[in-house]
Design brief:
about 300 residues; alpha/beta; Glucose Oxidase, domain 1; eight-stranded mixed sheet; six-stranded mixed sheet; 14 strands; about 30% helix; carboxypeptidase activity; carboxypeptidase
């Protein structure tokens, strides 16, 4: 069963008004039917989706060559009156673009996405540009198909994008696991653990300010692979700059008789870094938007970020 046009038109993930959105595929190839469904749903919501010319391209498992993806990336930010540049999916490939982006050519338009897009979000933060860790555009198709609590969670996640785009203050629930319980503050950074670990020590490495709250999530990994990625990422960062680590969902991750929380806690303990979990972001049905690079406060009441 799918949702009616009336139901979907009430959902305004990019805010009110007739807004144009640029759709790009900077990483993995996108199924043609997912693209069509996404564009149809955006139109039903009252938006004007602009699919970049190479978004349907395929080069191995990628959405086109580096040159094709880079051309779309630059062109998307020059689309007149675009409310945002919204990535269609993650996968792999964003790190291939970092060294070729002409940052001086990019107008101030926010980038929206997560998973492999974490590399680009961090690069945007490093250059003082707006970046949202939020559902990719093709997840609209998953919303259309979802039922019951899953539909509600996905709808709330999509709806959360608008307030972050508008620069409003925001809140996420969070549960303390270990480490200091006192309130901490810092700049929100992070994203997909495996992706961020893979670019450690490169030009696309995670940008880390003086005081940071590290947000992490992942999907489909076994615990030993997550531990390997965590060790690599932490070894590339300065622990004294970490105010806390916050875990979102680790969807379909095989942890055996242990847990992600126990593993992360073990590696943070020597540095006396607070660990919180159960934040509603990641590859599950709960994927609330949060602003990369925004100042935030973390306490027993949850995570709260400032307006900008």
């Amino acid at each position: 069963m799918t949702r009616t046009t009336t139901e979907l038109s009430r959902l305004r993930p990019l805010g009110g008004g007739p807004r144009t959105v640029a759709l790009i595929a900077p990483a993995g190839a996108v199924l043609p039917e997912r693209i069509e469904t996404t564009c149809t749903l955006l139109r039903q919501m009252g938006y004007s989706p602009h699919l970049m010319p190479n978004a349907r391209a395929r080069h191995r498992y990628l959405a086109g060559t580096v040159e094709q993806r880079l051309a779309d990336f630059h062109a998307a930010f020059h689309l007149p009156n675009a409310a945002a540049v919204w990535c269609l999916r993650g996968g792999y490939g964003c790190a291939q673009l970092i060294d070729h982006i002409d940052w001086d050519r990019l107008p101030d338009v926010p980038l929206v996405g997560y998973s492999d897009i974490s590399v680009l979000l961090s690069a945007f933060h490093a250059r003082g540009r707006r970046a949202l860790h939020a559902p990719v555009a093709t997840e609209l198709a998953l919303l259309e198909q979802a039922q019951g609590p899953a539909h509600k969670a996905r709808a709330e996640s999509m709806a959360s994008i608008a307030s972050v785009l508008d620069g409003c203050r925001g809140h996420m629930s969070a549960t303390h696991v270990a480490g200091p319980e006192a309130e901490v503050s810092g700049t929100l950074i992070g994203g997909n653990l495996t992706t961020l670990a893979s670019v450690a020590g490169t030009s696309g490495a995670l940008h880390m300010p003086e005081s940071a709250i590290l947000m992490l999530e992942d999907v489909g990994e076994r615990l030993y692979r997550l531990e390997r990625s965590l060790c690599q990422l932490l070894d590339s960062l300065e622990p004294s700059r970490l105010s806390a680590v916050c875990l979102g969902s680790f969807t379909d991750c095989d942890t055996g008789d242990s847990s992600v929380e126990a593993m992360v806690q073990e590696w943070l303990a020597p540095h006396d870094i607070a660990l919180h979990h159960q934040l509603p972001f990641g590859h599950g049905v709960h994927n609330q938007a949060w602003p990369v690079g925004r100042k935030a406060r973390l306490s027993s009441a949850g995570l709260d970020w400032h307006a900008c």
